[in-house]
Design brief:
Radius of gyration: 56 Å
Shape: rod-shaped
Structural class: mainly alpha
Order of helices and strands: HHHHHHHHHH
Strand content: under 5%
Oligomer: single chain
Helix content: over 70%
């Protein structure tokens, strides 16, 4: 598209230059013709004035001739003709004849001048008609080309508008999906926050990894309302980048390792509590190492039984240990439930307490929890891949939006050039109309002068 637009722009520039050169030549020719027409009009005015003066002189001479003829007739009718009065009228007649001959020669010269001027006018008229025909053909060709270009540009513009509408609909769909996800995340953000008050260092780490992206996305979804598409896209990119980094951190920490790290504080508490209780009660410290070895050798996911603790430390220790285990179990269940609700995983069957389960069922529940963690890990990986795809789509949308902007700018330039060409063509048409009017006026004046000359010829004869 960029190459096609560049080629169209180059062609438009070349044609615009050609049209400007032709218009400049046409203006120069029109100026020259207008000057010649003005000179011819001035000459015609002078010829008319001279013709009027000659006609007046001729009328005066004719009147004088008639007066002399009347005097001659009166003189001949007298009784005594004299020699001197007879010779005087003959001399006057000769003088008048000489004057008439001079006037006729002047009229003939003026007629020759007028004939030359008429020939020049005919030649200029022919040249103007030829130029007018040539310019009309060229203008027709240029108009056809411009019309074809305008049609092509309108087609491109319609295609670009369709693409823009499709992209805007896709962006709206993505905005709606992001808003829905942000609302879900904001609704689900309260569970991890409630668990975080009761968790230890491991649970704080998990809460930090999952709660902050949810709050960021919720705030992002609330801020996206009423903003422009570019700002929303930029902020979505930032949020997606942060979420991707945190998902990478989760990938580094395997689900089993995360679970072990989250349950390590429970093991430490289970080790430390019996020893402190025995010291306070004044008992021997021998059962404490046995209990520690049992907790280390036992499976961390719930194999420590309430019976062993009760037999080792007594009633108070068993109650505190049961509270600690209940707290850890509740924390684990809350964290896994929050993750399942966030990831929309409904197949989590290990979300149940291990307190009142026998040993075999506890082992099965531990295996089921391991499967649930692997399923959550897969869901997180799929979410990461989806986020990467959305980022790629957003990049493609941005590039297409930039391309659409450039195309709109180029179309606006082409439309401005077309409007300028139309204005120039309108001006040329006005100039042609003015020239035609001037030529018609000169033709009328020449026809009138010819009629006057034709009317004056019989009087001269």
């Amino acid at each position: 598209r960029d190459e096609q637009l560049g080629a169209l722009q180059e062609e438009n520039e070349l044609q615009r230059r050609k049209l400007q050169e032709e218009i400049a030549e046409y203006k120069e020719q029109s100026k020259q013709h207008s000057l010649t027409i003005v000179a011819l009009e001035e000459k015609l005015v002078e010829a008319k004035q001279q013709q009027k003066t000659l006609e007046e002189e001729r009328a005066a001479l004719l009147a004088e001739l008639e007066g002399f003829r009347g005097d001659a007739l009166k003189s001949t009718s007298g009784a005594q003709p004299e020699a001197s009065p007879v010779t005087e009228p003959h001399c006057c007649l000769r003088k008048f004849r000489e004057k008439l001959a001079a006037a006729q020669s002047v009229l003939l010269s003026k007629e020759a001048i007028i004939a030359g001027l008429t020939k020049e006018l005919a030649e200029t008229r022919a040249r103007m008609s030829d130029m007018r025909g040539e310019l009309s053909e060229e203008q027709k060709v240029e108009l056809e080309r411009n019309q074809s270009r305008v049609k092509c540009q309108e087609r491109d513009l319609s295609l670009l508008r369709e693409k823009l509408s499709q992209m805007s609909s896709l962006v709206q769909e993505k905005d709606q999906a992001l808003k829905a996800a942000a609302e879900e995340l904001s609704n689900a953000a309260f569970k991890p926050s409630s668990c975080q008050l009761r968790c230890s260092l491991g649970e704080k780490r998990l809460g930090f990894l999952f709660q902050d992206p949810m709050l960021d996305l919720a705030n992002l979804g609330m801020k996206c309302r009423g903003l422009r598409h570019e700002e929303t896209i930029q902020r979505q990119k930032e949020g997606l980048a942060e979420l991707r980094e945190r998902i990478k951190m989760l990938e580094k920490k395997q689900p089993s390792a995360v679970l072990k790290k989250s349950l390590e504080p429970l093991v430490v508490l289970a080790k430390d509590l019996p020893e402190k209780i025995v010291q306070k009660m004044g008992l021997e410290k021998e059962p404490a190492p046995e209990l520690g070895t049992k907790l280390q050798a036992g499976k961390v996911l719930g194999h420590v039984t309430n019976r062993g603790l009760h037999g080792a430390t007594g009633g108070a220790a068993s109650l505190e240990m049961a509270d600690v285990m209940d707290l850890g179990e509740k924390m684990y269940l809350d964290v896994v439930g929050a993750l399942g609700s966030l990831m929309e995983v409904k197949e989590l069957s290990g979300v149940q307490s291990l307190r009142h389960l026998p040993l075999e069922e506890r082992e099965k529940a531990a295996m089921q929890r391991q499967k649930d963690l692997e399923l959550l890990y897969k869901k997180i990986r799929s979410l990461k891949s989806r986020l990467e795809r959305k980022e790629e789509m957003l990049r493609e949308y941005e590039t297409s939006m930039e391309q659409l902007r450039l195309n709109q700018v180029s179309l606006q330039r082409c439309q401005e050039e077309m409007s300028k060409l139309e204005d120039e063509a309108y001006r040329e048409a006005e100039e042609k109309a003015l020239l035609r009017e001037a030529l018609e006026r000169t033709q009328l004046q020449l026809s009138q002068e010819r009629r006057l000359l034709q009317a004056s010829k019989p009087h001269q004869v």
